[in-house]
């Protein structure tokens, strides 16, 4: 039986970034044969004026199109696709064996007593399944349906989507079509798609990074201290967790134009590992990570509180 939480909301704030104008110094007078090389954009010379990809206020409009599963295993990487159709309000989930489940998509709140969780979950109500699945699991489509928590982020040409089952994991969609073996990190599944947007550039990325601060962020990829981080707001609660008192927290997008933007923090390691999860990060005055703590996921959308 699911437990519901009594929430006390607290917010952190995301700083912004985008592409803008470059301030050029006055060049010295060139000779007739010399060419003046314009200076490269830096974090100090870029103005933040662009409109980056925003957080998905209209879910199906944002999700519309194809997404591909991403894992750290060649045998499971790209083994499942999601095809969202805004016009019909549906999603088709398909694997490499052409097994599929088609479902209508309805938004709901994982914790309806707090506005921060408004539309942070998707109900996949199955309307069709492949013949192989129906022969194996029957024609009662309710066993194929699932409730999923979801959130997204964008960085330098890629959109990221995280789905996490909110119930008991007994849906055919959860344990058969997606499956535990394809999970990465935070008890869920990561999907990506190309968005053909270069935002943020390296200079914009430097402006987006927090400096000299400690904050919560969602980590999408990580190798050592090279990470892709999306700043998140958190709100805490004291909860009765199966008869025991427990401090928990949930996450939600920050306010502002850059809430959907993922920032690269690099210490030189190549980024090639998906490791989704909530972290508490401390950065120095240059934006370099000095400490990073993983926050344990508890279940039903809740993380361990402090």
List the helices and strands and how they pair.
Layout: E1 7-9, H1 59-63, E2 65-70, E3 80-85, E4 90-95, E5 100-108, E6 121-129, H2 131-137, E7 146-155, E8 158-165, H3 172-178, E9 189-194, H4 202-208, E10 213-223, E11 226-241, E12 244-253, E13 263-265, E14 274-283, E15 289-294, E16 297-299, E17 302-304
Antiparallel strand pairs: 1-11, 2-3, 2-9, 3-4, 4-5, 5-6, 6-7, 7-8, 8-9, 10-11, 10-14, 11-12, 11-13, 12-17, 14-15, 16-17
Note down, in words, how this protein is organized:
With 306 residues, the protein is mainly beta. Helices cover 8% and strands 41% of the residues. The chain has four helices and 17 strands. The chain has helices at 59-63, 131-137, 172-178, 202-208, and strands at 7-9, 65-70, 80-85, 90-95, 100-108, 121-129, 146-155, 158-165, 189-194, 213-223, 226-241, 244-253, 263-265, 274-283, 289-294, 297-299, 302-304. Strands 1, 10, 11, 12, 13, 14, 15, 16 and 17 form a nine-stranded antiparallel beta sheet that branches. A hairpin with a 5-residue loop joins β14 (274-283) and β15. The chain starts with 6 loop residues before the first strand and ends with a strand.
Keywords, please?
8% helix; disordered N terminus; mainly beta; 306 residues; 4 helices; 8-stranded antiparallel beta barrel; globular; 9-stranded antiparallel beta sheet
């Amino acid at each position: 039986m699911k437990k519901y939480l009594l929430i006390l909301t607290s917010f952190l704030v995301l700083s912004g970034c985008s592409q803008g104008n470059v301030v050029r110094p006055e060049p010295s007078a060139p000779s007739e044969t010399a060419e003046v090389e314009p200076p490269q954009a830096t974090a100090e010379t870029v103005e933040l004026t662009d409109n980056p990809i925003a957080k998905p206020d209209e879910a199906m409009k944002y999700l519309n199109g194809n997404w591909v599963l991403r894992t750290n295993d060649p045998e499971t990487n790209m083994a499942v696709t999601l095809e969202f159709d805004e016009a019909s309000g549906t999603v088709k989930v398909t694997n490499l064996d052409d097994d599929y489940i088609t479902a209508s998509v309805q938004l709901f709140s994982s914790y309806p007593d707090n506005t921060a969780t408004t539309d942070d979950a998707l109900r996949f109500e199955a309307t069709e399944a492949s013949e192989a699945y129906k022969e194996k699991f029957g024609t009662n489509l309710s066993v194929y349906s699932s409730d999923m928590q979801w959130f997204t982020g964008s960085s330098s040409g890629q959109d990221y989507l995280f789905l996490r089952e909110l119930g008991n994991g007994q849906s055919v969609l959860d344990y058969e079509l997606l499956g535990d073996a394809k999970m990465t990190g935070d008890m869920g599944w990561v999907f990506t798609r190309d968005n053909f947007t270069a935002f943020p550039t390296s200079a914009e990325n430097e402006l987006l990074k927090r400096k000299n601060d400690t904050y919560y962020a969602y980590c999408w990829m990580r190798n050592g201290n090279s990470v892709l981080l999306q700043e998140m707001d958190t709100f805490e609660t004291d909860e009765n967790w199966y008869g025991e008192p427990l401090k928990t927290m949930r996450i939600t997008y920050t306010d502002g134009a850059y809430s959907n933007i993922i920032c690269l923090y690099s210490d030189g390691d190549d980024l090639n590992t998906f490791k989704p999860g909530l972290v508490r990060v401390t950065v120095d005055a240059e934006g370099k990570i000095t400490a990073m703590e993983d926050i344990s996921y508890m279940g039903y959308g809740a993380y361990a509180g402090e």
